[in-house]
Amino acid sequence: PEPRHTLIMLKTLLAMTLGLTGALAFAADGPNPVEAPPVQDLGDGKFKVGIVGFEQKTRQISFPAEVNMKEGALEYAIVHQNGKIHEAILITKARPFHVNIALKILGYEESKELFPILGEDFRPTGKFPDVPEKTRNAARAEIQLRWKGKSGDAERATLNDWITNTVTQKPLAPKPWVYGGSYFHEKSFQAEASGDIVALFTTNSSLFNWPGRDASLDDVWIPTTARIPEVGTPVTVTIKPFVKGKSPAASKAK
């Protein structure tokens, strides 16, 4: 669609979403946060919501973050700065709500495949939703990181490279991350309420979750210390569609 049509779609989605959210999470947003965020049309198919930029043609989403941990146990990969910062490798000022708006507009689809079906007693049944392959594919994304190295040159890695599984003693396999879309509880969007953007230990409040081995464990993840710049280093996070048959590791920029 043309950029103008995309803006119309965005404003319609914002109206629908804001009508459901009620008061959104962070106190810093004030007592009446239900207000459509300013959407900037940057031209040439590029847009911005808050500090989250996104491109119509490439379907890429980018936002600033910074290194939060180089050592210690992890349960999350990326969280809002008001979120679970004691167990996340990257923190950001970008609102999960804004990231989700960009994901919706660019056509990423939610897949609930990682969340077990609950029984009448609200306990996991051991069964999982049967999600169509088309939806599963549309929910998969690659997450890339870019920062300025000590020499001043730009350096790049995938998010997977920065996280090690202590069971395998290796960085995460080159798998895509799965967009689950979080959920609403009492009119509150839980990704916004929790600050969860990308999780390692499967949690349905997070926008994205790790679909690989040991995702049900909360004590096997640590930073790949040798590959990560110093704490406080600014990092640009880019979410992009995962291309089937092309691993994230193979697509890193040189």
Please give a structural write-up.
The protein has 254 residues and is of the alpha+beta class. The chain has one domain. It has four helices and 17 strands. It has helices spanning 3-21, 96-105, 133-138, 190-194; strands spanning 39-43, 46-49, 52-55, 61-67, 76-80, 88-92, 140-148, 154-158, 163-165, 170-171, 177-179, 184-185, 188-189, 196-199, 208-209, 221-223, 234-241. It has an eight-stranded mixed β-barrel with strand order 4-6-5-14-15-11-7-17. The protein is globular, with a radius of gyration of 18 Å.
What is the compact description of this entry?
This protein is α+β, with helices and mostly antiparallel strands. It contains 4 helices and 17 strands.
Could you spell the SSE succession in H and E letters? Answer: HEEEEEEHHEEEEEEEHEEEE
Low-confidence stretches: 16-34, 249-254
**Structural shape:** globular
Q: How much helical structure, as a percent, in the residues?
A: 10-25%
Number of H/I helices: 4
Structural class: alpha+beta
Output the radius of gyration: 18 Å
Termini separation: 32 Å
Give the averaged pLDDT, no decimals: 84
Outline the biggest β-sheet: 8 strands, mixed, barrel
**Which band does the percent of strand residues land in?**
25-35%
> What's the β-strand tally?
17
Number of domains: 1
Strand order of the largest sheet: 4-6-5-14-15-11-7-17
